[in-house]
Design brief:
This protein has two domains: 148 residues, Aspartate Aminotransferase, domain 2; 138 residues, Aspartate Aminotransferase, domain 1, CATH 3.90.1150. Helices cover 35% and strands 10% of the residues. It is built from nine helices and seven strands, in the order ααβαβαββαββαααβα. The strands form two sheets. It has a four-stranded mixed β-sheet, covered by helices on one side. The protein has a three-stranded antiparallel β-sheet with strand order 5-6-7. Strand 1, helix 3 and strand 2 form a beta-alpha-beta unit. The longest helix has 36 residues. The C terminus is likely disordered.
Length: 314
């Protein structure tokens, strides 16, 4: 059991399970990307073996009640795994207290080396090894360890833990400044939770500009030396709209307008102000090119428009 909001690393693994003959249930989500405990309880079956849900969404920035979700899964006899990659180093993660059976994190999200990760496995949980052939990693993953990568990962975790509270506060302030600038552009919207009572990742926001395809907005920003994405970085080469936004019920055109902006330890207020300065003109140019439909949107009262009207595609 999983959700349509998960990272491609999870959805790809779930697809492999389907090919292996497992039945997979996809939980319903709300229009702002919420996953409720009640929905999980309703969807759980007697034969549900595993539930996998992320601590925080990689595009929306939503943070989920993993402790409550894990408890609901356990009450029906299912194991619970959580993808904690986006949350590690940004949120306080007490995995034993959350009650999860397994969790995965990645070093590069903490400023550590790439291609190094870690799996938390609850003490007492007996999992067969994915690979055979050696005694490393308590025989869970045989093969010579990447010692330099592991040491770098450990140091990155230490540094992230020391700076977490101050850095989260700084990034949240920059994110709020950024969103105030972006939402001042006509036709702008922010995707994800708008409930102030629900926590969010401090440095992640996903916005869209009506009539402006996100791919073209991202290209315009790239020419100004500003890097953003239109979804998960792992699918940055895809021209398809974000599956996360499609899962929120958006049509293809609206989902294609999404632009994900991530702030990190190297991001400064000057960077945020520069993005806010360049973006209005970029959105205006994309809209003027007519590639995303008409802007402002045509209403019935305005009457029919001729193909030669300004803003229409040639």
């Amino acid at each position: 059991m999983t959700s349509p909001l998960e990272h491609p690393a999870v959805t790809g693994s779930v697809a492999a399970l389907v090919r292996a003959g497992f039945a997979v249930t996809s939980l319903p989500v709300s229009s702002d990307g919420a996953i409720s405990v009640g929905a999980l309880q309703t969807a759980l079956r007697e034969d549900t073996a595993l539930v996998t849900l992320a601590v925080a969404n990689h595009e929306l920035g939503n943070v989920y009640p993993i402790g409550e979700l894990a408890a609901a899964a356990h009450a029906r006899g299912a194991l619970f795994h959580t993808d904690a990659v986006q949350a590690a180093g940004k949120l306080l993660l007490d995995l034993p207290a959350l009650g999860v059976d397994a969790a995965t994190i990645s070093a590069h999200k903490l400023g550590g080396p790439k291609a190094v990760g870690a799996v938390f496995v609850r003490r007492g949980l007996d999992l067969p090894p994915l690979l055979e052939g050696g005694h490393q990693e308590h025989e869970r993953r045989p093969g010579t360890e990447n010692v330099a990568g592991i040491v770098g990962f450990g140091l990155a975790c230490e540094l992230a833990a020391e700076a977490r509270e101050d850095e989260a506060r700084r990034l949240a302030e920059l994110r709020d400044l950024l969103e105030r600038q972006l939402l001042g552009i006509a036709g702008a919207r922010r995707f994800g939770s708008h409930d102030p009572a629900r926590p969010r990742l401090p440095g992640t926001t996903l916005v869209g500009f009506a009539g402006a395809p996100g791919q073209l907005v991202a290209i315009g920003l790239d020419l100004e030396g500003i890097c953003v994405s239109t979804g998960a970085a792992c699918t940055s080469g895809s021209l398809e709209p974000s599956p996360v936004l499609r899962a929120l019920g958006l049509d293809e055109a609206s989902a294609g307008e999404g632009v994900r902006i991530s702030l990190g330890w190297s991001t400064t207020e000057a960077d945020v102000l520069a993005l806010g300065t360049h973006l209005p003109a970029i959105v205006a140019r994309v809209r003027a090119a007519g590639t995303g439909g008409t802007w402002p949107p045509v209403t019935a009262a305005a009457g029919p428009r001729r193909p030669t009207d300004a803003g229409d595609s040639p």
